[in-house]
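assembly run, all chains below
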Amino acid sequence: MSSSFRSDMGTDPYDSVGDDRWIIASASDRGSSRGEIDSLLHGAGYRVRSTDLRHVAIGLEQLESTMVGDQCVASSAEAIHYNPSDLTAWVDSMLSELAPDPHLLRHPLSTAAANTWADPTQQRPSLHRLENHHQHRNVPAVSLQSMDEEEDAAIRLVHLLVSCADSVQRGDSEMAGSLLDQTRLALARVNTGFGIGKVAGYFVDALCRRLYPPPPSATGGGGSAANLEILYHHFYEACPYIKFAHFTANQAILEAFQGHDRVHVVDFNLMHGLQWPALIQALALRPGGPPLLRLTGIGAPSPDGRDALREVGLRLAELARSVQVRFAFRGVAATRLEHVRPWMFQVAPGEAVAVNTVLQLHRLLGDRASPEGGDAAAAEPIDTVLEWIVGLKPKIVTVVEQEADHNKPSFLDRFTEALFYYSTMFDSLEGGRVGGSHRGGQQQQQTVVAAVAEAYLQREMCNIVCCEGAARVERHEPLARWRDRLGRAGLRAVHLGSNAFKQASMLLTLFSGEGYCVEEVAGCLTLGWHSRPLISASAWRADDADDASPPRDHQTLVLQDHSSSITSGSNNVVDGDDHLHQHSVMRSHMGSSDRINDTGSGSSCSRV
Amino acid sequence: MAGSNEVNANESKMVVPLHTWVLISNFKLAYNMLRRPDGTFDRHLAEFLDRKVPANASPVNGVVSFDVVIDRTNNLLARIYRPAPPNPTTPLADLHRPPSPDPFPVIIFFHGGSFAHSSSNTAIYDSLCRRFVSLCGAVVISVDYRRSPEYRYPCAYDDGWAALKWASTEPWLHSGKDAKLRVFLCGDSSGGNIAHHVAVKAAESGIEVSGNILLNPMFGGNHRTESEKRLDGKYFVTIQDRDWYWKAYLPEGADRDHPACNPFGPNGMKLEELPFTKSLVIVAGLDLVQDWQLAYTEGLKKAGKEVKLVYREQATIGFYLLPNTDHFYEVMEEIRNFVTCNLKQPANI
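ok done. output:
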């Protein structure tokens, strides 16, 4: 009765241990100990990954329960034994051999057994003993980074974060400070390269800032506006959310502009005007020829004498000219959206107006009066703005917003919601990067883009956690609430057709990794990561926007020539450039009390 | 018999660190596969599963090892561990030079394994012996004694005695102005049992032993003690497997009150008149054999022999194999003190 052995599997009993057994690196660095051979058991002749220990232990337990009585000897004698040094494989193979019952779950005890081993930190020799024994100084630390440990550490981290936020809400800064310290310690036990560990780090910093606000610095709003554009651009590149917003909105605008010769787009946040080339090109290709396109872009004033809005307008005009679309641009510089007035757009009668708001409307919200969200409490800027939007009688209002409720009255609720929202966002940055098709981008480049994109998101997170009152502008609310609000303001939903849905899905497969998903919800589209929607796009029109009156020539309208220039009235600055006349309007109209100025943002929050 | 396996598993997991649990459970499982109900032993599989390491004459952490033949008639091997010679490119002959001009201890070590398992080149014991060298500045001789059931009583004791005699004739193992062999007998489990019996023979023969170090020594008897009943199957060991190993070692037809198994039992030898050495006995509080070990300690005391008992309440068998608990470090400290204290003075009064 002899056992059969796999002779090609290293049956030499000497194969497990070499001269290096004492030189195995001590597993003092938790990060590097993952996946390393456990040094304690290596000294006993076994090669096991520290991270496999629990799995092996559970396997041994199961083996014992299946091998009862005298049968175990008989059955094991006929078993094929694998290399006993590779304990993980040996245990697994013994289980397959001796317990092939498919009903015998691999880890029936895993939940119960997971945390029941004695905590080795209690058993670890006290430090002074280690000091006394010079020869024992090579003793490696016990390493326990198994998957269960990671999950437990992550859960604990979240719990600490939320508890800290709770203390902040209650005004117990001492408790909050102490919890922050514990959270930092817990942060050291998780992998901060991805997942909850990564986003938790940012939230820890944000909480810290809230508890101990830094002195107002000179950095202010000026530099950060240009900075924000860079961050925005990287966020645009790193993931499909903004792209999705742009092409969904453009599709709706395009459809709404059908049959109109003169169209006017009001963009609530111009940035680099990334949305408009595609629309300009689509209009150029429109059957029947392109309309006259006016674009009014709202943006933050440039502090350094540059006219950033004008520069963007120039570029867009170049493009329009190249595809023979008559184009005019106007910039409106404003620090806050609620300072903008409709007359600044100079909408001409007969123009088809499209109002485009991508991640902007939430900035106009104020504190919600009650947990039930009674909005009738105070007149918020949003109401004023929605009123004049409706007053413009737009053919289409495109609204893109974050799909989250970061404007709940309770700080703790906002904090928790944000923690999970941005955690998912970060996951998508990470996951989308790995899987997506690359338009020639190298791995390294993508890493930088993703990192800067994270900084963009960090600004949002920071605003949600650290700022209050007028300074808190990232007041995201979910689509359902926007529906109510926009409806009450007199706007009706326009179904984003199946075209938009198909286009969105197709573009996603082209540009992004697996994991992103588009969904249609009552005529609106959402884009999310796995099952969590993160951004929503919807389209609206005013009730009585079905204005059948034909466009009329107006004295403020311009003669058309192929160079797309517009002059209208004495209010405008006419410059010698025969390609384009455009002007930043507001500063020259400063007779009124509506000063649109940079009132100076002393906080780290950016404003438009 | 023991309670359900699941209950037992959960109990042991409460006090045993993960690494220790994995190591000892693995041994237990493997050993279960080797013991046949008819009393035979699957030696082939045992040797396959045993993790071994070669001797190494190159210093590793300041220790070198090499194998010697002690008794050609029995193919008796031993592995010698010693502090690395100062000259890094030392010729092999230097290994047989005294490690130090000053008195140094020689520890004759008998590995455990319930008389049936393991060898002097088993990885866990190689590690332990190396540690003893560093701990005490000792030369350690690990004896590869013959094992049961192929070789029963008294083979293991004979081999132990042969090793002691051999050491006493090796000049390089003698030290001090008086050029004495300052020898300690040390063993765990069955090795502890062997150490006792070799010490008895030494006392009878006039060879001076500086001290005995017994780690969880393996003793027993016909009577079922309270600790055996209470801890049966709870911490890796069962009464059933203890019985099997005694049956495999003791002469055919003998019971557990045989003096090899039960030295202070009804058939035990009186030690009062013998110059039996001092003893350090370490007992693990979760070892089911502890009542026999405590009885042994009492027996020594009653015979007027000096004994120090170190009782580690929450320790299981094999705690000295992994340096991951206070038990390990404190017991090593005890051993070091015992050896150092008994090095200078002759042991017998």
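The first strand of chain A starts at residue 4 and ends at 5.

Chain A has a mean pLDDT of 73.

not gonna interpret more than that til we talk
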